[in-house]
């Protein structure tokens, strides 16, 4: 069985509720997740907690596929979850699927 | 192949094909060695690290700084847990190795784990040496070696008042300084007749004592402790001369003892420490030792720089197949610096006088400076510097290189005495000389990092090269190197706005004006930004400049604003927000207080606090509650989060005070009402006091007004924050109207000419007060047009809370979506 099959698909937002350049928080059964809509209409979903000291990434300044943590300005790539140099670390990222207007993510 | 099979194969490969390296001791020397190994060959070893302490590798040197309150335990972590994971290192903390079977090549941990190894490194460091005194096992008798000791001291200081430090050496004095900072009374007991006798000569030791006494330490020299008194907990100590002292805490800092018991049991040769050769190899095959637990050519070092050199050699050795290629470890020249604020002490090499040596001494009793340079066979072999340690780098470099000084004049050895403009010691350094000894980063390495990566600040150099990351003592040298390499004075050079562009702040503003740009994206496009979307530094700046240049036409771009200015509240460390309603001039009434109380109850506000700016903070509000909180309060936003006018603090003045000669509250309220919601390059604070007693602290505000008989004085550029600065008297006027006009013109000049995030204090220093007086006070036309432009900008200000409360669409950003996963 492939990995994705074991995950659950959850509807988290409607595409029109998201705006480019501003993150959105969703709480999925206790897990805080940040959603970011990109210019091309795709959506990234990452854990809403900065690996530095847990800052809420959904509140950060967005620059393309990066978000700057609002607490101490760490720069995080929302596509792969990697913290950018010189800081190190990563956040969990979630697979996203968009069907029509609906945004789904996969959680375990 | 299925996922699982693949994983199993991967794991098997890793454990069978690669060699296994086990490190005992998760401390500074051991982990540095691992870092060096990873740099050379990241896939060569399967690495396992055992550490006795329940922490990842941290910077032991900085414990002094944690104790002194300048850093937290989190700040001093050098390699966090992620680092181990990313480098596929198995880390077992809180689990010491208790047995090594060198024959079978297996180690055993206290928790019963076993790991076999191909190579084993001992990096077990030292233990603090505890004097075997009667009573030394009582509660409250501790050492100063690890995080736990630090925590114990901090805890103790909360309940107890008196502390004794045994040992007047480096560590003891740093502990004593920390305990003073924790508000304890501190007595230092020392056996010798002057302090730090292992690093200083008598003269410097005495000067140090005087200095530290002035800081509040009490010294008891030539004292021998006989026993520690008390029941379960220490209550006092008694000396061999019969005298005694009461105390609640005893910190022993009399020396360190290499931690070698495990090595001895494993059959390694030990003397004072584990004996190693030039490649850090012990007498047993495949076992190495590095750090404080190792003894090389008779010396066991107790400082980080030599240990890091050892780590480098060891890494090169075990990563190379061909031993004969390398150069082994040759021993190190050591030097020390005391990390106590306000005291500069430096000592290196052979600083004691002997028959073969001659010394140059400089002693300036007025300035409290003492310098001694010890010379043998025309070479500098040692030095002690007290009070002014600026010569240290140059002297060290002379010592390392063995420079012949016979041709130099004696004065040239200590040139800072000559009174001429000082040349930075980095100028004379060779490229190979270390600037940061802790991390072994050379001048050459730093210079190339600066040029290759276009670094402009000490912080950037630190991030990029790790220089300055340990004790921080080399930061002034790094700043000098920046100046030297970039040819510009650090701080004065025209800084590019950020890493995305070459344009300076001024150039960006000029282009916006000239080309009539109107949106951040347009600015970045037209000016060829390196990243299309900018970053968290340039976007807010550009957004500010656009609104400043044309407040009417240019729209605000919320995505370029920091969260505080989007949520109109201050973000807290846990993601909640702080709400501060406006209270003009710090004046409130029972109606407002009642509303605040009701809101606090309704939304379970965990903390209410009076701010420094005379109003009330409601801490810990959830983001989704913000619009409702504002609506229930029915008050205006206090802009406590904004780059804008924050507060106008006022004294009570003539309304009630018997000294007041002016209506300070009235003027304060008027100023606050006029300038609220105007955007400025950085926050702006004001104060109005009604007489020179200055109860509203007008001297440390961006604009501070002080009432005097028959008029008002205006102070500008004051700052009570990071860079404390008293304001400059700007002018003295008769009427309120003149004050308001002058502030208006000044603030507009600041808005137009300061760089984003430049406070008025820095702006005034950069531009110069005379220039500002010329424009704002003397040029009548200029003043009028500044005031006009300010009026236009003011016409666009509105209360953001009200806007959001009245507009459902705007409230959307505050909502949080809750989704339940059904299984
Ligand atoms: C307060 C303070 C201030 C200092 N200031 C300076 C300074 O300004 N400049 C300077 O150069 N040096 C300074 N030092 C000294 C410097 O910190 C040490 O020289 C350095 O940390 C030694 O590194 P190490 O790796 O050899 O030992 P450590 O850093 O002590 O690491 C050894 C680790 O091994 C662990 N360990 C021991 N036995 C076992 C076992 N059996 N199994 C598993 N783990 C084990 C220990 O718990 C410890 O964590 C200072 C030290 C202190 C305490
Ligand atoms: S500054 Fe002067 S007028 Fe104002 S409260 Fe203090 S003493 Fe009274
Ligand atoms: S919590 Fe994100 S940068 Fe500090």
TrEMBL record, chain A:
Gene Ontology biological process terms from the UniProt entry: nitrate assimilation
EC nos: 1.7.1.4
GO MF annotations in UniProt: 2 iron, 2 sulfur cluster binding; metal ion binding; monooxygenase activity; nitrite reductase [NAD(P)H] activity; oxidoreductase activity, acting on paired donors, with incorporation or reduction of molecular oxygen
Keywords attached to this entry: 2Fe-2S, Iron, Iron-sulfur, Metal-binding, Nitrate assimilation, Oxidoreductase
Tagged with keyword Transmembrane helix: no
Metal-binding as UniProt keyword: yes
Residues covered by the Rieske domain: 10-105
Superkingdom, taxonomy of origin: Bacteria
PROSITE patterns hit by this protein: RIESKE
Pfam families, per the entry: Rieske
NCBIfam families named in the record: nirD_assim_sml (TIGR02378)
Classification via PANTHER family: 3-PHENYLPROPIONATE_CINNAMIC ACID DIOXYGENASE FERREDOXIN SUBUNIT (PTHR21496:SF23), FERREDOXIN-RELATED (PTHR21496)
Protein name: Assimilatory nitrite reductase [NAD(P)H] small subunit
Organism placement in taxonomy: Bacteria, Bacillati, Bacillota, Bacilli, Bacillales
Primary gene name: nasE_1
């Amino acid at each position: 069985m492939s990995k994705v099959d074991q995950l659950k698909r959850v509807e988290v937002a409607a595409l029109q509720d998201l705006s480019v350049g501003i993150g959105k928080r969703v709480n999925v059964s206790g897990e805080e997740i940040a959603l970011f809509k990109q210019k091309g209409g795709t959506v990234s979903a990452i854990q809403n907690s900065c690996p530095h000291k847990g800052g809420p990434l959904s509140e950060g300044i967005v620059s393309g596929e990066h978000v700057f943590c609002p607490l101490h300005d760490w720069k995080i790539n929302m596509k792969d979850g990697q913290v950018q140099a010189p800081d190190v670390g990563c956040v969990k990222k979630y697979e996203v699927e968009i069907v029509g207007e609906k945004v789904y993510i996969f959680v375990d | 192949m299925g996922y699982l099979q693949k994983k199993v194969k991967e794991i098997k490969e890793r454990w069978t094909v690669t060699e296994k390296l086990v490190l005992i001791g998760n401390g500074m020397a051991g982990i540095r060695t691992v870092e060096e190994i990873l740099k050379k060959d990241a896939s060569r070893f399967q690495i396992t690290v055992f550490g006795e302490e329940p922490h990842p590798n941290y910077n032991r040197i900085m414990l002094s700084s944690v104790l002194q309150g300048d850093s937290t335990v989190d700040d001093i972590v050098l390699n966090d847990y992620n680092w181990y994971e990313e480098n596929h290192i198995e880390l077992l903390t809180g689990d010491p190795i208790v047995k090594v079977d060198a024959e079978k090549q297996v180690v055993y941990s206290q928790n019963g784990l076993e790991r076999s190894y191909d190579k084993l490194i001992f990096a077990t460091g030292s233990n603090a040496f505890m004097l075997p005194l009667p009573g030394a096992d009582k509660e409250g008798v501790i050492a100063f070696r690890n995080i736990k000791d630090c925590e114990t001291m901090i805890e103790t200081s909360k309940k107890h008042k008196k502390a004794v430090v045994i040992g007047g050496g480096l560590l003891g004095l740093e502990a004593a300084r920390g305990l003073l900072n924790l508000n304890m009374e501190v007595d230092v007991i020392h056996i010798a007749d002057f302090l730090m006798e292992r690093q200083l000569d008598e003269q410097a030791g005495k000067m140090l004592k005087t200095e530290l006494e002035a800081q509040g330490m009490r010294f008891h020299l030539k004292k021998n402790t006989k026993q520690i008194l008390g029941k379960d907990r220490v209550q006092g100590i008694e000396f061999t001369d019969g005298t005694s002292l009461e105390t609640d805490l005893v910190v022993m800092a009399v020396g360190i003892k290499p931690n070698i018991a495990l090595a001895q049991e494993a059959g390694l040769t030990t003397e004072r420490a584990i004996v190693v050769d030039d490649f850090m190899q012990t007498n047993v095959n495949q076992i190495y030792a590095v750090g404080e637990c190792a003894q090389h050519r008779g010396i066991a070092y107790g400082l980080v720089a030599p240990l890091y050199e050892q780590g480098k050699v060891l890494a090169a050795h075990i990563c190379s197949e061909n031993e004969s290629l390398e150069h082994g470890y040759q021993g190190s020249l050591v030097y020390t610096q005391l990390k106590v604020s306000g005291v500069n002490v430096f000592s290196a090499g052979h600083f004691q006088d002997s028959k073969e040596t001659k010394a140059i001494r400089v002693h300036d009793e007025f300035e409290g400076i003492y310098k001694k340079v010890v010379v043998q066979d025309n070479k500098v072999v040692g030095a002690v510097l007290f009070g002014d340690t600026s010569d240290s780098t140059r002297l060290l470099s002379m010592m390392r290189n063995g420079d012949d000084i016979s041709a130099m004049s004696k004065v040239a050895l200590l040139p800072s005495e000559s009174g001429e403009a000082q040349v930075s010691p980095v100028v004379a350094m060779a490229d190979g000389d270390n600037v940061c000894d802790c991390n072994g980063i050379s001048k050459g390495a730093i210079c190339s990092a600066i040029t290759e990566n276009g670094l402009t600040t000490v912080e950037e150099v630190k991030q990029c090269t790790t220089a300055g990351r340990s004790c921080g003592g080399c930061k002034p040298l790094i700043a000098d190197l920046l100046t030297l390499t970039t040819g510009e004075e650090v701080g004065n050079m025209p800084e590019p706005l950020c890493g995305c562009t070459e344009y300076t702040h001024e150039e960006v503003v000029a282009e916006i004006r000239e080309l009539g740009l109107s949106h951040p994206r347009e600015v970045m496009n037209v000016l060829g930004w390196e990243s299309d979307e900018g970053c968290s530094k340039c976007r807010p700046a550009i957004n500010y400049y656009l609104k400043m240049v044309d407040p009417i036409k240019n729209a605000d771009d919320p995505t370029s604003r920091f969260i505080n200015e989007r949520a109109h509240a201050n973000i807290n460390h846990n993601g909640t927000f702080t709400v501060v309603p406006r209270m003009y001039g710090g004046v409130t009434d029972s109606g407002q207080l009642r509303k605040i109380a009701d809101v606090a109850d309704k939304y379970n506000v965990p903390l209410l606090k009076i701010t420094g700016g005379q109003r009330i903070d409601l801490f810990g509000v959830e983001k989704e509650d913000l619009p409702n909180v504002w609506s229930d309060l029915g008050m205006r936003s206090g802009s406590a989060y904004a780059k804008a006018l924050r507060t106008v603090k006022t004294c009570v003045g003539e309304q009630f005070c018997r000294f007041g000669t002016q209506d300070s509250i009235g003027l304060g309220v008027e100023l606050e009402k006029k300038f609220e919601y105007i955007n400025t390059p950085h926050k702006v604070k004001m104060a109005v006091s009604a007489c020179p007693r200055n109860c509203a602290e007008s001297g440390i505000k961006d604009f501070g007004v002080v009432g005097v008989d028959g008029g008002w004085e205006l102070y500008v550029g004051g700052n009570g924050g990071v860079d404390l600065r008293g304001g400059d008297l700007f002018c003295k006027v008769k009427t309120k109207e003149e004050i308001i006009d002058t502030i208006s013109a000044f603030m507009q000049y600041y808005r137009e000419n300061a760089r984003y995030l430049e406070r008025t204090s820095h702006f005034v220093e950069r531009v110069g007060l005379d220039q500002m007086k010329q424009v704002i006070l003397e040029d009548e036309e200029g003043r009028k047009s500044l005031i006009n432009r300010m009026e236009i900008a003011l016409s666009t200000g509105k209360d953001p809370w009200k806007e959001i409360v009245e507009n459902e669409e705007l409230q959307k950003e505050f909502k949080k979506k809750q989704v339940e996963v059904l299984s």
